[in-house]
Amino acid sequence: MDINNFEYNLDPHCEAILEEYDRLFPLFSKMAPALQEKLRGFFEEAGIIVAAVEQRVKTRNSLAGKLALKGAKYNSVLDLTDIVGLRVVTFYADDVDKVASLVERYFDIDWDNSVDKRKLHEIDSFGYLSLHYICRIPKNVYKSDEYPELNDVRFEVQMRTVLQHAWANMNHDIGYKSGFEVPKGYLRNLSRLAGMLELVDDEFSRIRVEIADYRRKIQSMVASGNLSEVPLDGDSFRSYLMLEPFRPLNRRIAAINQAEIHEVSLLNFLQVFKLFRFSTLGDVDSFIRKWSDAAYQIACYQMGVTDIDIISSSIGPQNLCIAFILGSGGGKAGLKYLFDALNGPNPANEVMADMVMEQTADLPFMNKKK
């Protein structure tokens, strides 16, 4: 039998509720996607990244089935709280509460019918975890002359994590849609799985907090100039670049031709400094101090015979790397390695390495090395 065509023997009271549903269905159909977009906008404005925002309108057949079971408890279709439903799926457990806070800010919450299923379990039980709010749109936010019932329509917002969502769907399919009673052994395994997922959710949130604390600590250490104790990694290097450590050298180079400096990202030099076996920001800072004069000498040769009036902000760190390689005896092979790392492997990098070797051969820092 096609469930979509299933007919229920409803009493006149329930049939009247169905007719009311039919009349308001255009409103429900507009509300669901509009609320979905509103929620997405709220999260984007608040800087909360969520996995999904879903919406649905209860089908006529689903409503008829519900009325067949307990239609007597409803006087009107507006007494039902889940005709319009939204679900917000977050990546982290602590984001559920952040999402809930935004929902509370923008909508009226029916606290008597809302439920936090995360708090319903005993200490030795595991299962469905989700926060359900029953909401209304306040009249001071939006009202409709076409549908004056708009502000009386309650809608449900479910909030849960990706892992809770996965478990709920699996449990629903196995335990609810199967059509037979699930043996206790399988239910116990489902409960064990729920406990594991709950633990994983908590661990993801804990790790995120620890990473955030680490980033704040690194930023504080960089700002204080305590660079020798700061490990060189992506987070610390970003914080270091905010101090503009290459700017003095770049300005010195730009003054050769009174050139303008075009700012570009310098994050790709992190992999180069890793290749140089630098382990702390202190190593990078010492590297800049030691090789700045040599990098300037290279730039003087590069720009002395040209009328270049715009230079990239990468010229300083690149010339520092060239000076370091040549001054450390890395030669042509080391230069090619550098250009491959910065520009990607390309036969032209070998030609560039030959050219730099020729240009720098008689520079003071090279003669001093000899």
Written overview of the protein:
The chain is an alpha/beta fold and 370 residues long. The chain has two domains: 3-205, 2-Layer Sandwich (Beta Polymerase, domain 2), CATH 3.30.460; 229-369, no CATH class. Helix content is 56%, strand content 10%. The chain is built from 13 helices and eight strands. It has helices spanning 12-46, 60-70, 93-106, 162-175, 184-223, 234-241, 247-254, 269-275, 281-304, 315-327, 331-343, 348-360, 364-369; strands spanning 50-57, 84-90, 108-109, 115-116, 131-136, 155-161, 260-262, 310-312. The strands form two sheets. Strands 1, 2, 3, 4, 5 and 6 form a six-stranded mixed beta sheet that branches. It has a two-stranded parallel sheet with strand order 7-8. Helix 5 runs parallel beside helix 6 and helix 10 (315-327) runs antiparallel to helix 11. It starts with 11 loop residues before the first helix and ends with a helix. 24% of the residues are buried. Residues 1-5 and 121-127 have low confidence and may be disordered.
